[in-house]
Amino acid sequence: MKKTFFAVALVTAAVSTAPTVQADSSINPWKHCGIGAMIFDDNGAAAAISNIIWDLGTTAISSKISSEESCKGQRVAAAQFLQDTIAQVEEETVIGDGVHLTTVLNLMGCEAAAHPGLIGDMRSNLDLNTEAKAESYFLQLEATIQQNYAAQCTII
Amino acid sequence: MRAFLHIFLLFLAGWLTPATGATHKHFQQQASQQQLYQSPYWHALLHYKKSRIHKQRVKSELLDPEFFLAKDGAINPETELLATIEAILSQPGDDHNAHASCRFIARTHWLEQQLPGFAQARPATKCELFEQWAQPEQLDSVSLVFASGYLGNPASFYGHILLKLNSSNPSKTYLQHQSLNYGAAVPDQENPVAYIIKGLFGGYQSTFSYGEFYKNSLTYGEHELRDLWEYQLNLTDGEVLQLTYHAWELIGRHHTYYFLKENCAFRMAQLLELIIDARLKPDLQPWAMPISVFHALSVIEQHGQPLISAIKLHPSRQHRFYQKYQQLNAAQKQAVAAIIQNDFKVHSLLDPLPSPEQQAQVLEALFDYVEFAYLGEPEIIQQKKQGLLQTRLMLPVLPQAPFPQPEQFPHQSTRPSMWQLQASSKSDKFIPSMRFRAAYYDLLTAQTGQPPFSGLGMFDVTLAREGQRFVIQQFELLRIEQMNLSTTGLPADSGFAWKVAIGYRPLTRNCSDCRHLYAEGGLGKAIRFQEHGIVYALLDGRLHPAGEQLNLVSAVGRLGAIIDIHPGWRSQLELGWNTYALSNHQSYGWYRWHNRFGQSPDWDIRLSLDNTQNATRWSLSYSRYW
């Protein structure tokens, strides 16, 4: 019983965004946290679920590479969101507005007043030709924030 | 007096020191005296179901041994209650999340309300995992979300239900809100026959899972092109918490899944019934429909207010495309068509448009078109969108118009199950008949939230009087009709109209003793005319047992039109020709004119004329829906 509970607990911890966890900007969520690799915790259930979103570990920890804590924070949640919705975020960045774009900026802890400027800067440097779109977008967003918006974005 | 003093001292002990064996015995005794184990709320929290044979016996519908704290907790509400009290009063270990008060928050909260002093007697725990998941201090409201029907998967024909926990945090968009989903765990590459049989007869387990709402938005809105209708509920803060506590207890727990009844609609309704004093799920009826939950919610008052406080549509990618396209002027629509024809290479095709606004609107409509047209082919989407994105990036940021919220909502559609009384005249004879359809709608039904001009019928039986008795005139196990209309006329926005049906009925129109089992499939094309009508042509092939005059296969060619003359009057005219190849049976033509009057969710009146081989039959029917 306890074992199962802890399995659920670990997964829950992995998926939840924990505001208290400090961002470790040296971690690349794609290389160190298994994002994009779809590492699933084994919860004993069938892998494919009909009519259901089985949210057990798209942000699961690749513990051999990185520590659990460094892959739990909001920064990694933002990376995961980008991985899942890059088509929408890219499109909305090009347009300059949209709920997915707002969400990713929220996840990066950027206050609303900074959004228009940040979006403008992202549009100026957006690389539409890259293969690894989500990772490239994330790294560009982080660089833009660090350069011009560090004071308005709390998780950097 | 001595007993009172004893209880007082135990209370004092509870206040001042961590719980002891004596304390839990005291509260267990108190719970037993109050017969809390018989409380309907306790039974609801443990998902106990009464035995059909032994009315005094119960068994929980949950399959996980971890959900119970007593060895026989799945079948014994009393021992489970006593074990729960003991576990909650026990000292937590290093990880409070593993303590009963964190795993079973709804039970703990309820016991605190039922047993005076219990809240103070139990050791304090910090349930970090729950708090990270629910963020209860930010919980604002709860919404029930209806995902419209999806004909790509039999389990989704009837729509789907999700629960959404809305946050008051202004730094979160609705995509970041938590949501709860319920569904069956089906292995990859499951055989379709096994899928149907296991789904119907309990061959799968199902579970509650959670995730941020964006994942639902992606799955249903972007990948399956289904609209999500969010019904926000008017609940008190306490009720929102109560619901969230129990939702937490259910995550990852398993039930046996039955496609017809114990499905997402049933389980979500069951969850809501914890806090709503009304029946939302069917009791004796052997099926449960997602839309029925919304019909039920729409008439419930909670604390003197309508239970539904707001309804919001999250449109699918396809719906957004249609909306954007309809806003374009003629020159913009020409540009859209030209760019599609030019394989999405923009070049100078936007030049005739006078402003960046108009150019941007064309490109943004094309983004949606590409995503919808090449669904499931991400590499092609990326390749086709590349030039469009680059061109749009060179235009300025422009204000975006919000998606207009609709005036009609799914719960205003006709309810899904039907009784019908019919009176027909045929050859100067009056024929009464009764019809029952378990679900869901036909081409004449007034409905919102389903594909337009489509039909989905299941278990549809008509009994007609013949002589002194009623006989089964016709029975359809399943009928699906999908007109697959094009809204824009663009290449990817169209498909074949199709139909499938399985049933038992007369194989010619004028015979009464020639009923056979049959399977039918049809293919054709439907197009819109004006705003509220369609015309269609279909060729149906029918497989049925061969007889003296019949061969194994027959065919029906049909030409028809359906028009909404008024929201309360839909009319269908259909002409057809039946042929019985390689048999002695003569081919014949027929026509029919069917009308539905009324647009209430609860009833309609239908007037029909059917003519076959010069025999005319008039029918008037009254349908009652629930």
TrEMBL record, chain A:
<dbReference type="Pfam" id="PF11220">
    <property type="entry name" value="DUF3015"/>
</dbReference>
<dbReference type="InterPro" id="IPR021383">
    <property type="entry name" value="DUF3015"/>
</dbReference>
<feature type="signal peptide">
    <location>
        <begin position="1"/>
        <end position="23"/>
    </location>
</feature>
<keyword id="KW-0732">Signal</keyword>
<protein>
    <recommendedName>
        <fullName>DUF3015 domain-containing protein</fullName>
    </recommendedName>
</protein>
Automatic annotation (TrEMBL), chain B:
<dbReference type="Pfam" id="PF13387">
    <property type="entry name" value="Lnb_N"/>
</dbReference>
<feature type="signal peptide">
    <location>
        <begin position="1"/>
        <end position="21"/>
    </location>
</feature>
<feature type="domain" description="DUF7840">
    <location>
        <begin position="410"/>
        <end position="625"/>
    </location>
</feature>
<feature type="domain" description="DUF7843">
    <location>
        <begin position="34"/>
        <end position="114"/>
    </location>
</feature>
<feature type="domain" description="Lnb N-terminal periplasmic">
    <location>
        <begin position="130"/>
        <end position="283"/>
    </location>
</feature>
<protein>
    <submittedName>
        <fullName>Uncharacterized protein</fullName>
    </submittedName>
</protein>
<dbReference type="Pfam" id="PF25222">
    <property type="entry name" value="DUF7840"/>
</dbReference>
<keyword id="KW-0732">Signal</keyword>
<dbReference type="Pfam" id="PF25225">
    <property type="entry name" value="DUF7843"/>
</dbReference>
<dbReference type="InterPro" id="IPR025178">
    <property type="entry name" value="Lnb_N"/>
</dbReference>
<dbReference type="InterPro" id="IPR057162">
    <property type="entry name" value="DUF7840"/>
</dbReference>
<dbReference type="InterPro" id="IPR057165">
    <property type="entry name" value="DUF7843"/>
</dbReference>
